[in-house]
């Protein structure tokens, strides 16, 4: 602490905060072993994860301050500060590995957090740890990342192919529905034309019926009149106001000529 204070008060303060977090992490994992309830263990593990996240932030801040002052400090001091940073990274990675062990033990599904990605955590994928890896380890890690990338690309291609297939099926279904709608529209046009033709035919039949009714009414009146005349003639054959109907008038009496003998 005192050596860091001679270089920078800010570095000394950051180093003190990181040391406090490491002590809290150590005590927290020791306490975790004594907890029997799985839910309480999960909550304790989440709390420790938050402390590791804060520790990671402080280590990055430590690295930032060192880079900002590297032109104003000698090479030995700079090397000491980088070694201090690497020591912090390794200690934090040990707690990250311990956390994963407890996750597996508790059956907690792996979640993507600050310690799982290549750009977030201080695990083996982290750039801060790369400086402490050998060339072979870096090559192996690079090959692993390339394999993971190829797998991700293959999965993406599969998703794209499935999406294209779904789009093709959807387009075919839409085409069938469009053709079906066209047939329905044509059927509606045919029905409408038939209805108009039927309405016209009904009107013509109505007019014809009306004409037939007039003729029937006239015939009925004529027949009724004839019946009335016949009835009156039969009842009162001497009625001179009603003219004889041919074929129905009673026979005329024989008239004698003037001067004929009786």
Can you walk through the features of this model?
The protein is built from 6 helices and no strands. Mean pLDDT is 77; it is low at 109-129. The protein is mainly α and 262 residues long. The chain has helices at 2-7, 9-34, 38-69, 75-106, 127-130, 135-235. The protein has a domain at 2-132. It is found in: Membrane. Residues 38-72 form a coiled coil. InterPro entries: NPSN/SNAP25-like_N_SNARE (IPR044766), T_SNARE_dom (IPR000727).
Strand content: under 5%
Q: Can you tell me the overall shape?
A: rod-shaped
Low-confidence stretches: 109-129
Count of DSSP-assigned helices: 6
Look at the helices and sheets and give the structural class: mainly alpha
Give a count of the beta strands, DSSP E runs of length 2 or more: 0
End-to-end CA span: 183 Å
Order of helices and strands: HHHHHH
Mean pLDDT: 77
How would a textbook summarize the main sheet? Answer: none
- What level of helicity do the residues show? over 70%
Rg from Cα: 57 Å
Provide a compact summary of the structure:
By secondary structure, the chain is an all-alpha fold. The protein has helices at residues 2-7, 9-34, 38-69, 75-106, 127-130, 135-235.
